[in-house]
Amino acid sequence: MSGVKLEKIVKAYGRLEVVHGIDLEVKEKEFVVLVGPSGCGKSTTLRMIAGLEEISAGDISIDGRVVNRVAPKDRDVAMVFQNYALYPHLSVFENIAFGLRIRKESKGHIEKTVKEASDILGLTPYLDRKPAELSGGQRQRVAMGRAIVRRPKVFLFDEPLSNLDAKLRTQMRAEIKQLHRRLGATSVYVTHDQVEAMTLADRIVVMNDGNIEQIGSPMELFMNPANTFVAGFIGSPPMNQLQGNIEKVSSGLQVRINDTVIDLPNNTNVEDGQSVVLGIRPEHISLSNNEGTSAMSISLNLVETLGSEALLHAKFGEQDMIVKAETNGQIDHLSEISTVYAPTDLVKVFDAKSGLVLSEPFSQGSNT
Amino acid sequence: MSSGQDEKPESGVTEYDSKKSFKDKLIWLGDHFRNEWQLYVMLAPTIIWFLVFLYKPMYGLQIAFKDYSIFRGVAASPWVGWEHFHTLFSNDQFIRAFWNTIKISALNLLFGFPAPILLALMFNEILHVTYKRVAQTIVYLPHFISTVIIAGIVTTAFSPTAGVVNTIMGWFGLDSIYFLTRPEWFRPIFVGTGIWQEAGFGSIVFLAAIAGVNPSLYESAVVDGASRWQMMWKITLPCILPTIIIMLIIRIGNIMEVSFEMIILLYQPATYITADVVNTWVYRQGLESGQYDIAAAAGLFNAVVAFVLVMVANTLSRRYVRTSLW
Amino acid sequence: MKMRYLVTAMLATSALSAGALAEEDYKIVDEPLELSIQMNHKRYPVYKEDWPVEIEARKLTNIHLKDVTVGANLRTDSENTGKTEALNLMLASGKIPDIVGSSRIKDFVNQFGPEGAFLPLNDLIDEHAPNLKKFFEEKPEVASALKAADGNMYYIPYLPDGKYGRAYWIRTDWLEKLELDMPETVDEYEAVLRAFKTQDPNGNGEADEVPFFARQWPEMLRLVTLWDGRSSGSDTYHDFYVDNGEIQHPYAGEGYREGIKNIARWYADGLIDAEIFTRGSSSREFLLSENLGGSTHDWFASTSGYNRLSEDIDGFEFKAFAPPASISGKRIEEHRRIPIKPDGWAIGGTNKHPVETIKYFDFWFTEKGRRMANFGAEGVQYDMVDGKAIFKDSVLNSDEPVNNQLYQVGAQLQGRGYFQDYNYEIQWSNEFALEGIALYDEGDYLIDQFLGVAFTADEQKVYDKYWGSIRDYMLERQQTWILGTGDVEAEWDDYLAQLDQKGLSEVLEVMNSAYKRQYGG
After folding, report:
1. Where in the sequence is the domain holding B211, given as residue range(s)?
2. Which of A67, A80, A81 should be substituted to probe chain B, the one whose Cβ sees the most B Cβ atoms within 10 Å?
3. What is the model's pLDDT at position C293?
4. Is the pLDDT reported for residue B169 higher than 70?
5. Would residue B316 count as lying in a domain?
6. Which of C112, C465, C472 is closest, CB to CB, to B269?
7. Which of A288, B91, B174, B212 fits a 20 to 30 Å CA distance from A275?
8. Banded pLDDT at C10 (limits 50, 70, 90)
9. What is the DSSP annotation of A272-338?
10. What phi and psi, each to the nearest 5 degrees, are found at residue C209?
11. How much is the pTM?
12. Architecture of C18-161+341-420 per CATH?
């Protein structure tokens, strides 16, 4: 099985440790996205898999073989770079064929393979052009073509879409997803963009400060963030995080924030009086008082209109919060809002000190 | 985006509208200078430099066609047509000097041009930082040594009695050779000295070009399985090719300018047959009676040859490698 | 003690009275007159108005020279091309000062004087310069040599005094060590050089001696005189010479062929420095101080100074010896001090005071002026003793060479037209030089010099057209013959034919026509 396995991987530059012993297993044909803010060690991890960086400690195995000391070319991986890494003096055809020529493949094989790849990527009309004569998206496809023709065990993507404009990025995202379905190759993809991670990944690895914060499917991370960092990183806009204290009352659990109390599900593992962070996703807050909700008085600062939705930037007591509301084509009424309702079932509670989640995970989200 | 951009096409229309009156044009010109005067101020030094150091001296070129006397001055000296060129081309020593120039330059180009590139490629492969810096400094050094001293070093090194070259040859039982009086040795020694002196310094521009190559090209190639050798051939060299071509064209433009001082210091009457170049020939002629007009004619001829060569090189390069000086 | 006081007092009075007299005698103008001057020489790049000699001259003549020098002769190379750089710059600037003094001014004024850049001096000298007139009347050959092609004289030269320049030198202590006599003939000279090579006179066990060496390789060519050839007719290398009133070139003569053949043989046998063409100007210093050099042909004054090496090298003695007799028995010293230098000064074409200027030039040919030009300031650099200028001990014993001290006060300026006094040099020449000069004086080995010709424009064209190529060709063949890559015997006829084809006869023709015009031969 051509999976990738990282065990206790450490990367240090001299005394400075940037990756602190991470464990990760990428299964065969799985599409795993490493996501995190810049400097979190995700690119370094990818480059260690590729063999472009030495491993300071731990083991990396590809396809069951430990490759710590194996040269990049013998790891049977292909990598797509952020700035495409196209050879400016070579035509599209030659760029795609580069790896094959290096490996001294036969001429016929090269022709055939490049042809297939260019057909898949829609590059056939451009094979004679130089990279400088291509658009950004086309260049990105060429870069992928170079990886495809190698038929590697593992594809590595290092922020491949970050140089594209927003519209092209959305389009290329879809193409990569399709390509993965079609080729079914094991892929490790690095990005700082959580939307990209959500849309592409079978599983997402959230990294921060050289550590893995959480590994899970996109919906798992969305619904059950393991800590405040993941909660704040996944989702757009991110989860609202409000400081408060637990109160155990006869009717169940509550969080008191200033004068407001918000009901919590009963199965939350908290103590009376504990300092917690209450997490509520902006899209889970409703404008109408339904059953099982707690009212929150807010003062509205700004209404940001996105079209079908609007973001309400508001103050809840001293704390900022954002509410995502459907517009249904109308926004005038939104500026009048002064009370919103937090659904008891969907709020999350994190320990204020450790940041770890205290709520029981949802079970229904794991199926998606 | 800004309003400034929106205005531009409008003023452009004014500029080319032939129906506008002269007065409008003047107004446009006034506005133009008022708005863009900073650009003209920045342009001025270049224009002045060209006028003073290039165009004004060109006026003096006419002495190539005159019987020039410093006292009478350029304007008052009588025209003599092509006489000086006649003198040059009927002189077999000038012809010989011309071909010597071409030959020495061609050798310089053949061996002296690739040397700094090779050196730069080699430096690029050195990973140890301190070692690399020390090595680079050492090969840059000869560039900063005066030509007179270099010539002294060469003379000593190739001395038949105490020179290091003959000493080493002696270990192998070879007879000592008085290199600097042997016509057949002059060119190798001259070209070799030039390489020794300039290859290190010349490598700087290529090192800079190599430093400008996107490092991910190499990483990508590493992942694709390219060896260092393949990376040099398939990435480094092609990526610095435009720099190489530009340097080559410039070099071709200087083909008639061999290091004249070095030749003066190293040649002997016995080696004139291979060593005498146009500049040294003119120099020796000039000291007979200050024949500036002949020297100017030879200089003009040099310039014409160099110009033609540069044009040809530039055209070929633009056609075949799509890189050119202009 | 008393005596000395008396002498000093007498000297002081005589100096005073001479000064008082002079002020009357030498005044050229009543009101002080300012004249502009450009003066270049590599030893003193610009004219300095505060040189003591100039201050004195100003007092005496009432002529005040103002320095307007542009440029400097900074380039130094073996061919002296740098020496007229400042002149060219001055001419190109279009302003010619009243007086122009420079090294290498001769060709310059002879070319541009007829075009009007400089004034002809003949009539001015006749009418206003009695001392100069007398000088030229006494030395008509000098007057002839100064003439430009149009018959006029355009500059007053620096006229060196003393006859001797270079001589043959040999390690006499080596001769003694090897029990050899001073060589008197070319064969003996060869035997001595061979002994130097083979018998290890420096005693280090290696045959590393360099029997004959020269700082300037053309000095080796002087050896052709030992086979009755010639190498040059003047103190310029490869120059023409006068043979029975006809100008010839030495490198086309039979004696030259014989000489080159033998020089090549000496070179092949190691009697001549193997590196003579490339060792350069430091070879004398190096070979003598390393105890390697045996014999050379070089200047009296500077070469004799190397006897100071006896402090380091036991027994070192380097002495001049008379030129060995040639194969036909002639003893010739080809080099001598040339009586006229191409250095000196001229009057600018726009000078408004030519009469005053020529009178000023004339001043330096008076006894007083000549003494100042040679010895500096009386009472400072020299004293008068028995009617002769004698340098003060402080000058003679200074660490700085005497000539350098004089340049610094404005004496011995070779950008000035003056007649040198050999007494100035004799006073600070060392014993070895004086002994050598006495030896050469005894034998009368000097020969007449070719003092150069001035061409008309047409002659100049012929000369320019052919001469450069001919000279290059001569030198190329000469070196290949000496180095043994060519054979002078076998190639001689071809060589002469080539010279002819390259226009040697045309060049000789214009040389001779110019010579006859100038010297009336």
Report:
1. 91-320
2. A81
3. 94
4. yes
5. yes
6. C472
7. A288
8. very low
9. TT-EEEEEE-GGG-BSS--TTEEEEE-EEEEEEE-SSEEEEEEEETTEEEEEEEE-TT--GGGGG--
10. -65, 145
11. 0.77
12. 3-Layer(aba) Sandwich (3.40)
